[in-house]
Amino acid sequence: MTDLPTTAPEKDLALDAVVDLDVPGPTISRHLYGHFAEHLGRCIYEGFWVGEDSDIPNVGGIRTDVVEALRELAIPNLRWPGGCFADTYHWRDGVGPAADRPRIVNTHWGDVVEDNAFGTHEFMALCDLLDTAPYISGNVGSGTVQETADWVEYLTRGDDSPMARLRREHGRDEPWGVSFFGIGNEPWGCGGNLRADQFASLARQHATYARDHGGNKLVRVAAGASDDDYAWTETLMQQVAKLGDTEPRDLWQMVSFHFYTFAGTWGDKGSATRFSRDEYWATMRKALDVRRIIAGHSAVMDAYDPQARIGLALDEWGTWWNVEPGTNPGFLYQQNAMRDALVATVHFDAFHDHARRLRLANIAQTVNVLQSMLLTDGARMIKTPTFHAFAMSAGHHDAAGLPVRERAARATHDVDGTAVGTVSASASTKDGAVLVSLTNLDPDAASTVRIALRGQAVSDPVATVLAADDPAAHNTFDAPDAVAPRPLDGVTLDGGVLTVQLPPAAFATVRLTLAS
């Protein structure tokens, strides 16, 4: 949200704002709603992949219920095979007849042995079933430039080249379209413990040999910083531009960073479902800090690329809690509560407000790991509150952003000396409609929001809310719909002024029709 000169808030009004419908902002790329599937815990095996011989309904080994559920989200892209796993993954181990593929040890996640049943062909088949763009993460940490070059050729070249012939030997005649290719992952940590200047040299090499073949055009994503390490971003930008350049070198098209939300310390992040009010508010303060960090990386990039030709990518984000009791600590399995959904929705608002520079984001992760969309238990599957937050926000995909400008100071809650806004909002327009997203972070009080919609007439508000009596509420296999969307009452439109009554700890969307 952007600010107008403010006055004292009207009593009982948590947000008083203006949206100018005739002054659209940058397009909100659908790829800001991307997802992430790593060989970690039960994300791939038992999550997406059960094998062709499984009693669980599947298409070529990929479980049908998961695909059908995720298609409801219109997933725009899916990142694979990692994560940290990507920098130990050698793609040739995962192609060819399944019986001939070598077994490998997943040293990063649980120290388990896997048989490479799910490899390149299986992932690309999954992307086809989901109708989503593949985001391949290349191995810079332990791989070679030749591996990068060969994998891209294997995936995307259509003539009689060596890698195209090998692909055909493995049963795939035509090349695939690959949208995004990651140059490394967390090189400052699990991807090699490198300095920024060390990685920059490797990234230049790998990006050079991740070539465009035929009509396929890769968006190369250079692995970037942890949180607010702006020096890392500057080092990467210096590889492609000088201060004030208007035409950066076309070496990579995006630079990434990672940011996770938790209430405690890195060693004790807190429980997903058992938390105090203080821990709840600490979580929201941390989640809202993503705005500062996006703005910081964007400012660094603006100095080297003022026309924003190179995009910023947040290709790992989400909540990270202590694992559920009794589960493998290396599998990162956690429950997903209403609190997690609210963390997601305030991220969405930040993404929308920074859509000029931020072009790609991937929540970690899709199934059974960290802030998942879905949880599975054998043949059973449930949708999480975060799933519903994504589904309710799909109307923002590729829409024109509409800045929400405050005209009075909004309500805040003090969190150890930091004033945390209790309401977050964003809006967009597409296909003759306006979609307004509203989040009430206050877990103990309802909030009233008033937004003046100016510049064009609107009508027929349709409101949906995701809420629960307790922000720790979550869905289980015995109660799969404990937290689910429902119609929202208490919404009025009078003279172009939208007024919404939000329950405590709630996310709502209001869709309005634009006058033709």
From TrEMBL:
<dbReference type="InterPro" id="IPR010720">
    <property type="entry name" value="Alpha-L-AF_C"/>
</dbReference>
<feature type="domain" description="Alpha-L-arabinofuranosidase C-terminal">
    <location>
        <begin position="315"/>
        <end position="506"/>
    </location>
</feature>
<protein>
    <recommendedName>
        <fullName>non-reducing end alpha-L-arabinofuranosidase</fullName>
        <ecNumber>3.2.1.55</ecNumber>
    </recommendedName>
</protein>
<comment type="subunit">
    <text>Homohexamer; trimer of dimers.</text>
</comment>
<dbReference type="InterPro" id="IPR013780">
    <property type="entry name" value="Glyco_hydro_b"/>
</dbReference>
<dbReference type="Pfam" id="PF06964">
    <property type="entry name" value="Alpha-L-AF_C"/>
</dbReference>
<keyword id="KW-0119">Carbohydrate metabolism</keyword>
<keyword id="KW-0326">Glycosidase</keyword>
<comment type="similarity">
    <text>Belongs to the glycosyl hydrolase 51 family.</text>
</comment>
<dbReference type="Pfam" id="PF22848">
    <property type="entry name" value="ASD1_dom"/>
</dbReference>
<dbReference type="InterPro" id="IPR055235">
    <property type="entry name" value="ASD1_cat"/>
</dbReference>
<dbReference type="InterPro" id="IPR017853">
    <property type="entry name" value="GH"/>
</dbReference>
<keyword id="KW-0378">Hydrolase</keyword>
